């Protein structure tokens, strides 16, 4: 672990910028300076908040299936980094569903952390918040996923692997037939060697 990254991780763990979070600040991430693959996702859910383990839920199972990685490979911090758009559980919306990631989180932490991950070869942008954060605020998620090849070799846009995506997948068979094989190839290449 580089001194600079260790120091930023210590600051991140102590972050209380969003004092009004319903379960309190508790950033969830997985970071190492040797990681080849960086996953920028949405925000942790209640299960990840409780366990401290990102994607320790059915969405995580779906994402691992998409990537062609088992739990051991996915949670190998020396090869895979996970830095969500909002690092703490954001709570629920009044009408149901998780609240969006805290908007100030990524602007505060990503510019400090991402440059300290020099071995990253591929960054997965998982869900609309991550896609708009990195590819621009006007980017349409489905357009970005369909046009994934334009964003390679550095970025790979993906939908969020929530249960809602199952319905979307059925309406968009190109995702499973075209995008997922390309995704598995890009992930294997990033992690190879
Ligand atoms: S969501 Fe981000 S900015 Fe807010 S307290 Fe957590 S780590 Fe800090």
Automatic annotation (TrEMBL):
Domain of life: Bacteria
Domain Uracil-DNA glycosylase-like positions: 28-184
PANTHER family in UniProt: URACIL-DNA GLYCOSYLASE SUPERFAMILY PROTEIN
Protein name: Uracil-DNA glycosylase family protein
Organism: Elioraea tepida
């Amino acid at each position: 672990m580089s001194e600079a990254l260790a120091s930023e991780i210590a600051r991140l763990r102590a972050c209380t910028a969003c004092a009004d979070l319903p379960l309190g600040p508790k950033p969830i991430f997985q970071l190492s300076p040797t990681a080849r693959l960086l996953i920028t996702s949405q925000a942790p859910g209640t299960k990840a908040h409780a366990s401290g383990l990102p994607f320790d839920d059915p969405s995580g199972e779906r994402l691992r299936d998409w990537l062609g990685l088992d739990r051991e490979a996915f949670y190998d911090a020396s090869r895979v980094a996970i830095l969500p758009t909002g690092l703490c559980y954001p709570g629920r919306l009044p009408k149901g569903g998780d609240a969006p990631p805290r908007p100030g989180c990524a602007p505060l932490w990503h510019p400090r952390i991402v440059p300290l991950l020099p071995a990253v070869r591929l960054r997965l942008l998982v869900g609309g918040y991550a896609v708009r954060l990195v590819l621009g605020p006007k980017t349409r998620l489905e357009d970005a996923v369909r046009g994934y090849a334009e964003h390679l070799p550095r970025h790979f846009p993906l939908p969020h692997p929530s249960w809602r995506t199952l319905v979307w997948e059925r309406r968009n068979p190109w995702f499973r037939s075209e995008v997922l094989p390309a995704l598995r190839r890009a992930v294997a290449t990033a992690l190879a060697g």
